[in-house]
Design goal:
Elements: E1 3-8, H1 12-25, E2 29-35, H2 36-44, E3 51-57, H3 59-68, E4 78-85, E5 88-94, H4 96-99, H5 106-127, E6 130-133
Helix pairs in contact: 1-5
Length: about 130
């Protein structure tokens, strides 16, 4: 899957705080969160490194996309994943352009990609980390 991502050398809790701040600057709010590691621990007794999914939404982008194609609701909210890795935390978001193909959604998907990439890029840049768009 194509992703917009950065690897940060800070722990997941610190990375989450910074991610929330940068997403807010780009107009995204966190609608929900899923503590995957905590849920697996509770339900299956499985231990794994921290993994959290933030369900984020930019209301303007969501409205524009839904006006063009109501089935876009299947993709909402956008997921931003924070995953513990050896060097710290990987922050990743699915590339909206690859999720919403076609001419009708091209502009809004591109705008969403730009805003997510900008937020993750500013985060990586502020911490002197590497950013990747796959």
């Amino acid at each position: 899957m194509n992703a917009i991502q950065a690897e940060l050398t800070c722990p997941a809790a610190e990375a989450e705080e910074l991610v929330r701040e940068e997403l807010a600057k780009a107009g995204f709010g966190v609608l929900c969160e899923v503590d995957v590691a905590g849920t697996l621990r509770q339900k299956l007794g499985v231990e794994r490194p921290p993994l959290k999914i933030l369900g984020v939404c930019n209301p303007d982008l969501a409205y524009r996309a839904l006006e063009l194609d109501p089935s876009v609701s299947l993709l909402l909210p956008c997921n931003v994943v924070l995953e513990a890795v050896d060097a710290g935390t990987r922050v990743a978001a699915a590339d909206p352009v690859s999720l919403m193909p076609g001419a009708a959604l091209a502009e809004v998907a591109s705008d969403a990609r730009e805003k997510l990439a900008s937020a993750i890029g500013r985060l990586a840049e502020a911490l002197g980390e590497k950013q990747d768009a796959r």
